[in-house]
Design goal:
Layout: H1 16-37, H2 43-54, H3 56-65, H4 68-71, H5 76-80, H6 87-105, H7 107-118, H8 122-125, H9 132-142, E1 149-156, E2 163-170, E3 173-180, H10 183-201
Antiparallel strand pairs: 1-2, 2-3
Helix pairs in contact: 1-2, 1-6, 1-7, 3-6, 6-7, 9-10
Length: 202
């Protein structure tokens, strides 16, 4: 059930309730991890790190790392529309999986799973820049590279609530994509993901 998306109407139940619970489990697990990992940081600094780690773009990266795109149960229409690669669907699925672990094995085990998944991304995602697009541009300029190129990779959803998918590419790295309800927000999310990739290879 944790991997059954609401688009699969033939299923008796989907992962929406688990996603609701998983969001809370994840929030507490990450908060506890940061509290232990950074004993000298202020509440404000910890809050900033927490926001970076639980943002949709970060959750989607981790979901891809553990193979969730191939495991999610979607309707044929949603899968054909690229649902298995949508950040929102992947982030929700990851939260639902953590909720299932919590219900089956308790918070301590769920916290351990969260720590194993998030620790490798602790530095790259836990301190997102205030303006990721500017930071990415400055990084490129400091190395004599061409400026980042942003492109609209797709648009879905109804006219009154569109979802934009934007890609960003820079010399030497594969393009990164992100989704958001505005083009600007999608560009920022994509920039965050590319900055994280750069940090991992540094």
């Amino acid at each position: 059930m944790a991997l059954t998306h609401a688009s699969l109407r033939s299923a008796a139940r989907n992962n929406e309730r688990l996603e609701f619970l998983g969001d809370r489990v994840l929030g507490l697990a990450v908060a506890a991890m940061l509290y232990d990992k950074f004993p000298d940081e202020s509440e404000g600094a910890l809050a900033k790190r927490h926001t970076g780690l639980v943002q949709q773009a970060a959750l989607a990266v981790i979901a891809r790392d553990i193979g969730l795109p191939d495991a999610i149960h979607l309707s044929d229409a949603e899968r054909a529309a690229g649902g298995a690669e949508k950040d929102a669907i992947l982030a929700d699925a990851l939260e639902a999986v953590l909720a299932a672990v919590f219900l089956d094995a308790g918070f301590a085990v769920a916290q351990g799973v969260a720590a194993a998944l998030f620790t490798p991304h602790l530095e790259s995602f836990s301190a997102p820049p205030e303006d990721p697009k500017s930071s990415l541009q400055e990084w490129a300029q400091s190395r004599g590279l061409a400026l980042p190129v942003y492109e609209i990779a797709g648009q879905s959803g109804p006219d009154h609530a569109p979802l934009f998918r934007v890609s960003v590419r820079i010399d030497g790295f594969e393009a990164e994509e992100a989704e958001a309800t505005s083009k600007r927000a999608a560009e920022k999310a994509a920039a965050v993901k590319l900055l994280a990739k750069i940090a991992e290879k540094a």
